[in-house]
Design brief:
The complex is a heterotrimer of chains A (about 280), B (about 350) and C (about 290).
Chain A lengths: L1 H36 L11 H8 L1 H33 L5 H7 L8 H12 L4 H6 L16 H24 L3 H9 L4 H30 L2 H6 L7 H10 L3 H26 L1 H11 L1
Chain B lengths: L1 E12 L2 E12 L3 E5 L6 H9 L6 E6 L2 E2 L10 E4 L11 H11 L4 H14 L15 H13 L5 E5 L7 H18 L3 E5 L2 H7 L2 E6 L2 E6 L1 H6 L4 H6 L4 E13 L5 E16 L5 E4 L7 H4 L2 E8 L3 E8 L2 E8 L11 E4 L18
Parallel strand pairs in B: 3-8, 3-9, 6-7, 7-8
Antiparallel strand pairs in B: 1-2, 1-4, 4-5, 9-10, 11-12, 13-17, 14-15, 15-16
Helix pairs in contact in B: 2-4, 3-4
Chain C lengths: L1 H14 L5 H31 L16 H8 L1 H34 L5 H13 L2 H15 L5 H25 L3 H9 L4 H30 L2 H7 L6 H8 L7 H23 L4 H8 L3
The chains are: A mainly alpha (about 280), B alpha/beta (about 350), C mainly alpha (about 290).
Chain lengths: ~280, ~350, ~290
């Protein structure tokens, strides 16, 4: 009896070691040293200056606000496209298989190239501008504009496949019978969708929303290329600081960005109390 | 000679005990069924025999060798799973070959055994199919074939028929019995289905609440169960409280019956519905004496028989009558006759939830 | 009862979400049209830019075409070296990630343990924390260890980025293997190595494919961390290309060529492997928090 149990107890850390150990060493370590670095002056003494700068300098404060704006706005747009798109993909239509392979292509396109595409298409004098010019229209400023429309367009383009993939699977995981049960109990197709399917798909949808939000909040290439020169998000300012060689400032900004992302996740976990649930499940199994 | 010898096996989960000391033995070539309601500990016992889970105490011997410390792959036991557990990425033939390869059986011998198993499990022609291309019954047979190619010392069955529909289950039950007769493998079969257990087994081990309640042939256990739980779990029965004196006992409504042995004081007897005779009394009331208290309260026509609910005193009796072409309508008074030599039950398990 | 079951198929069909034959085609057409506008059109335009010889407003198409710029860029030795570097690094990273991830994914998929949730969140963390923070931190450590400006250093730092997704995708794949299958294999005489080789690995193939694809593409296109740890000594394709792509001084034609060079291998791999990817698995691995 004890032999097998002891084996299993030894086995778990042994199995976890490669992956978790690697991340501890090459991710946890650097992160810890970055954190320490963000609290030190050049001479090694303790300081909170790097942090207080973020919250006192107008450009930095603006950057924080811009980061959040560039996190939230694209996600809202992507969600509005992705949900109908996943409902359409769920149905049967000609060439469905090919389509569900092709729509994921943007997953493999780096942000900087997405930025270029936006420039080619939406810049004044770009393709769309030229295409509608004979009709007497002109494109408003959409690239490097004050509202960051270019950033939103680019981020949305990149986010939709990821979001659609996850939301499609979330809907697909709902057993057909549950939908039919809703209908036989007198709910219309729309009511079934809102009161049965959406709540059941909610964990997948929130996961998609949070992950894309965190991703686009920290993204650098897209706002750098097509973002407004006046309002630059923290991630872009961070790279500027890096180019100036002010590493502690980079660390501090990174910590603030990460802390914000973590705070969003923690708020989500607390609201849904999934941490407690998962513990229960793990022990029972 | 007993092939499998389970002695005082216990299993504790923290403070709660899933198996009280359980002992049983299976003779070579015998087909033994462990029968019990869900949660009775039969699956825990099976998993321990197989080696997937470790017992808290006791020992297991197979062919005289102690096996309870061995990992499953060295126990020489093959199992047929409830979910079949066919390897989804292998063809039927590869599934069958897997164990032989693992045990380094020679190529020619592998071929011979696979061909034989495919034939006796009527799988011929399916060897290159993938499991997902097979019907439920075929998958079940592949699982069985995969176990018997191993020519194990012991075959374990974990409710292998419970995922099939009723008709197929019936067919496969007969096939399984026939197959067992042909290959004579020592088999331990776990089920909660009493009909399955009675139809297939040489002996049945009745379990409840982590204990062995009673062991016997299907006939013994059905005809003369010694435990109230057994009587209630195998087929239908009437459990009646009696007061015994000598070889006679009084039923609750005062009627006298014969007992199989001398006894005294309160006890319990089991009377099968089909062993009670039922006869409608004439409306004229010639034989009023035995007729008066018993009235038909309900009747269900079952095809080959009719099942009556008869009210007698405060008791509702189940009585079944074969044939059933002349149904007695509800409300009629009836005369009941009871069999002789009723055995008194021992009631070791007071929680008879399955009655 | 019989009447009910006779009607059941008809009811199911009516209620199911199948389009009627009338609107199946319009839906397909509009979906493919948007796909064309969203993906094919911008890519096509960029390709036109890369071969355009003069394309001034208001022309909708270039006035003339030239292959000279492609020839110039491809003649750059450094670019070829960088491309080879990138492919080799991406392959090594993919395999190393898979090997490191497999045991951990197995533990995450099959073992219940108390701190599982914590470990799960920790594995997710590299996706949450901006890469540049880790890169700068790791750059300083590598400098001390002598790993900075080396291919090995670039590989090590890239795995930090690819490992989380690989672990999560493989965990999702391994979770779908029923316990009974492992038990059956054991009872048929397979020891742990046999089970890993004959049961676990073959059944983990979808997870390995998904994780491998994402790792390869991720590594091939990774810039931040590789730049900080490797540049200017180790040059990968993205490092080389991002220099061409400086947003303020770039020229669109050149930038388009460079984008295509960076995009093409990733797209090819994606189109080939994308056909065998399982959506449910991708979603379970990528979309869980």
């Amino acid at each position: 009896m004890s032999m097998l149990l002891r084996d299993r107890r030894m086995l778990l850390p042994l199995l976890l070691a490669p992956g978790v150990g690697y991340l501890l060493l090459f991710f946890g370590g650097p992160l810890a040293s970055a954190f320490i670095g963000s609290l030190r002056l050049e001479d090694g003494s303790f300081t909170l200056d790097w942090y207080s700068r973020i919250f006192t300098r107008p450009s930095m404060l603006r950057g924080l606000g811009t980061s959040i704006y560039f996190g939230v706005a694209p996600v809202v747009v992507s969600l509005l496209v992705s949900v109908p798109l996943s409902l359409a993909i769920r149905r049967h239509f000609v060439g469905r298989k090919l389509f569900s392979g092709l729509y994921k292509l943007p997953l493999a396109v780096p942000g900087i190239i997405v930025g270029l595409m936006i420039i080619v298409l939406f810049e004044r004098g770009g393709f769309i501008d030229r295409a509608i010019a004979p009709l007497g229209f002109g494109l408003p400023k959409l690239v490097r504009d004050d509202w960051g429309v270019g950033v939103i367009l680019a981020s949305v383009w990149k986010q939709i496949p990821f979001m659609t993939l996850i939301i499609t699977s979330a809907f697909a995981a709902i057993p057909e019978d549950i939908r039919f049960a809703g209908r036989t109990l007198g709910a219309s197709r729309l009511a079934t969708f809102f009161f049965v399917e959406v709540p059941l798909a909610m964990p997948g949808i929130t996961a998609a929303v949070l992950l894309t939000f965190i991703g686009s909040m920290g993204s650098y290439a897209i706002p750098d290329i097509v973002g407004p020169p006046t309002a630059r998000p923290l991630s872009v300012l961070m790279v500027e600081e890096f180019n100036l060689g002010r590493f502690p400032q980079v660390f501090a900004m990174g910590m603030v960005l990460s802390a914000f992302a973590v705070a969003v996740l923690v708020a989500y976990y607390t609201l849904t109390s999934r941490i407690g649930d998962a513990h229960g499940r793990g022990d029972a199994r | 000679m007993s092939m499998l010898e389970i002695t005082d096996i216990t299993k504790d989960y923290g403070a709660s005990r899933a198996l009280h000391p359980v002992s049983l033995s299976v003779d070579e070539g015998e087909f033994v069924t462990i029968l019990g309601p869900s949660g009775c500990g039969k699956s825990s016992l099976l998993r321990i025999v197989m080696g997937i889970s470790q017992q808290s105490g006791g020992e297991i011997r197979l062919a005289g060798k102690r096996i309870d410390m061995l990992p499953p792959e060295r126990r020489d036991i093959a199992m047929v799973f409830q979910s079949y557990a066919l390897f989804p990425h292998m063809t039927v033939e590869q599934n069958l070959r897997f164990g032989l390869r693992m045990k380094n059986v020679a190529k020619a011998e592998q071929q011979r055994r696979i061909a034989h198993a495919m034939e006796i499990c009527t799988l011929t022609g399916l060897s290159s199919r993938m499991p997902r291309q097979l019907s439920g019954g075929q998958q079940q047979r592949v699982a069985l074939a995969r176990a018997i190619v191993m020519q194990p010392n012991l075959l374990l069955f974990d409710e292998p028929l419970s995922n099939l529909d009723a008709k197929l289950r019936d067919t496969l039950r007969h096939e399984l019995v026939a197959l067992h007769r042909r290959i004579g493998a020592t088999s331990l079969y776990v089920t909660h289905d009493q009909a399955e257990a009675m139809a297939m087994s040489d002996r049945i081990v009745v379990m409840n609440a982590g204990r062995v309640i009673e062991v016997g042939t299907p006939l013994e256990l059905y005809r003369s169960p010694r435990q109230a739980f057994t009587a209630g779990f195998l087929g239908q029965t009437n459990l009646l409280a009696v007061t015994a004196s000598g070889r006679k006992a009084h039923l609750p409504w005062g009627q006298l019956v014969d007992l199989a042995e001398d006894a005294a004081g309160p006890g319990q007897v089991s009377v099968r519905p089909e062993s009670i005779g039922i006869r409608a009394c004439d409306r004229g009331g010639r034989d009023t004496g035995s007729c008066a208290p018993a009235t038909v309260a309900g009747v269900s026509f079952m095809g080959a028989s009719a099942l009556y609910t008869v009210a007698i005193g405060d008791t509702l009796l189940k009585v079944s009558q074969a044939g059933g072409d002349a149904l007695i309508e509800p409300g009629r008074t009836v005369a009941l006759s009871f069999p002789d030599r009723l055995p008194l039950l021992e009631d070791r398990a007071p929680d008879r939830e399955a009655a | 009862m019989t009447a009910l079951s006779d009607h059941a198929p008809a009811l199911r069909q009516a209620r199911s979400l199948r389009f009627t034959s009338d609107d199946r085609l319009p839906v397909a057409i509009s979906l493919y049209a948007s796909l064309f506008l969203a993906i094919a059109l911008p890519l096509g335009l960029m390709f036109l830019w890369s071969i355009a010889d003069g394309w001034r407003p208001p022309n909708l198409l270039p006035q003339a075409y030239t292959a000279a710029r492609w020839a110039d860029v491809l003649a750059d030795d450094g670019l070829l070296r960088a491309a080879i570097n990138s492919v080799v690094i991406a392959i090594v990273v993919t395999f190393a990630t898979a090997i490191i991830a497999l045991p951990t994914a197995w533990a995450m998929a099959r073992f219940p343990f108390r701190l599982k949730r914590v470990v799960e969140v920790f594995i997710l963390a590299p996706i949450i924390i901006p890469g540049i923070v880790v890169a700068v931190g790791i750059g300083q450590i590598f400098l001390a260890l002598g790993l900075a400006y080396s291919v090995a250093g670039v590989i090590l730092v890239q795995i930090v980025g690819t490992l989380p997704l690989m672990i999560r995708l493989m965990t999702a794949a391994l979770e779908t293997i029923p316990d009974d299958l492992i038990h059956a294999a054991r009872s048929l005489g397979a020891g742990t190595p046999g089970i890993v080789r004959h049961i676990v690995l073959p059944l983990a193939v979808p997870g390995l494919l998904a994780g491998g694809l994402m790792s390869f593409v991720g590594s091939f296109e990774e810039f931040d961390k590789s730049f900080i740890v490797g540049a200017p000594v180790v040059e990968t394709l993205p490092i080389k290309l991002y220099m061409y792509l400086d947003p303020y001084s770039m020229q669109l034609p050149l930038a388009s060529i460079v984008s295509f060079l960076l995009l093409l291998p990733a797209l090819i791999v994606f189109v080939i492997a994308g056909r065998v990817l399982r959506d449910d698995l991708m979603a379970a691995g990528m979309g869980k928090i």
